[in-house]
Amino acid sequence: MQSQDVAQRPAPPSPAGPVVDVEQAEAALVEHYPRLVRLAYLVLPPGLGRSRRVVTAHALTQRALPRNRTPAPVIPAQSTGRHGDPGYALVRLQVLRTALEAGLPLKRKAWPKRSQLPPVLPQVWGLKLFPRSGGADELALDQRLSTLSGPARAAYALRGIERLADDGVREVLTAAGVADADGALLEADGIPAQYGLLDSPEFDPCSLQARPTDLMRRRQHLKAALAAGAALLVCGALLGLPGEGWGPDGAAAPPYARNPSAQAALDPAKLTRVPATAWRGSARTDFSVWPARGDLTGDTALLRRALAVWARPGETVQVSATPGTPSGGPAGPPQLLYAGTVDAARVVILYDGLRIARYAEPKDGTQGAALDFARVDGAGRAEAGAVVLGRADGNVRYLTAPWVAKAGERDLMKPGSGAMDLTLTDGVTAPLASPALRSGPCTSWNVLQVTDGSRTRLLTDLGELVPARLTAGRPGSPGEASGAEALRVWQPFACSLGTLRSAGVRNVNAWAFNEQPLPDASGSAAWVCTRADTWRGGGARVLAQFHTPGGRYGAVAAKAENVAACGARDPHVLAGVLWKAEAGDWYLLAAGSRETTSIRATGGVDGSAQGSLLTVPAEQGARAELKGTLEDGRSLGGLR
Question: Do 325 and 424 touch, CB atoms closer than 8 A?
């Protein structure tokens, strides 16, 4: 078995720390629940299957609460601010311990542990739940992790999710009952350190897709099998009448209910088609004024299949949706944006006022059809600039808005190289390299540049149906990222966009909030905050990044999710980083937005400074809590 490195005896007692109340442990579990569930999911044996791993991960995390006051383990935590919370250390250790136990082999002469049995709760009857699919990099990493033992997967997850050093990982594994922690670390070294991919929806058991379980087996267990069989025979006879068969609907599932509204939404003749010049005189400038384009807009059979699959995707249809996007059928006749041939596929793009839906089928048949959804409610002229038509051979093609007069491709990591013009044919771009399809090290980041009158905008492919808009500047009043200064700001941080794939991102803003002289007089470092807002409103991701002179890439100093920092509602941020000078000395460097009047560091580093910058000598591996004061007297906490 893969988990033979876990000691099959009671875990050795870990050094006792502060006594944790049940209420304190519960608060830590609730606050960090998504992170704990993700940790359990990664450690659980892959042989359980994705659906059972999801349910088991939630069950183990929810059962991690102690029954009474319990000493917390003294285990070093990562540099995300949780090191001061003994409640978090306690529940994390319990989650890790039970996840490792779940992979132990069952013994004939011993009762199985509770974690080795299918969870009683939570249960979702009639559905299989599994995380959303990531890109090729995430799939490759998942396959590599499946070859590791349980302790090695735990070591990799603690390094990547918890950002623990090897000494800390060794202590956590030992406290969790792993007999050979050094061996687990050595085995984990065989997997490339792609820790940023662990934040992907591929490994997120809290952002799920649902599919039915084995329908035939469920049907066999129904008590009214005879009555159900009779009803199915009657339905089958009705559906098999001439003119009402399933053939014209292609890969769609059988229609289970019929009503006038639903039938109208499936009628190609009732699709909304907007005149080519409607956008010029419309009060709105969004997807609602896009005309129907493409060489197959008159192919009624294709349009019927696209509408039918949207309403009832069959088992062979690959369905994907950005987070927070409903995937049900349209409420009424949608608007046709495109129907045509794209590379080796026939593609139909539809819009229902809330979502963009893309139906694609191979040119040689309807088997292997795909259906993708993206939420676009509230889109304006800037966000409604392009839609992905298709991806192939590492490239992506876009359908651009009718007001886009010119399109180009540029490398965000080479701000001085200019843009290469792309041919536009009826709004369809020539193929350009997609960073969402690339594997391996990040050496370039190609984006789509569109020109709309006097404005030039940059859009980037993040693996979804609608590209994300890039901006730069102070939150609340950012400018387009196409200007010379904005391009220089984005250059070192372009590769950080890779952490935002498949997250439903609407726009990403880069804000250079401060500049800090380095203590060894080697120049000044730039502090930049990147904020990715989503179409659904929640789930915004914020990164405070640090870039030293001459460095090709920026370094992530702090990150947070679902916070107002660096946004229009709260255009302030405070972050710090440990920095090593060429001479070998270590320093804590911290910076706040320009309105910060003082900064204080406590904990592993003690120091304070007036103004928005702080430089304090420190020791390697030190941890510090940051607190700032704004001009209006409000307190500003460090981003984490």
Answer: no
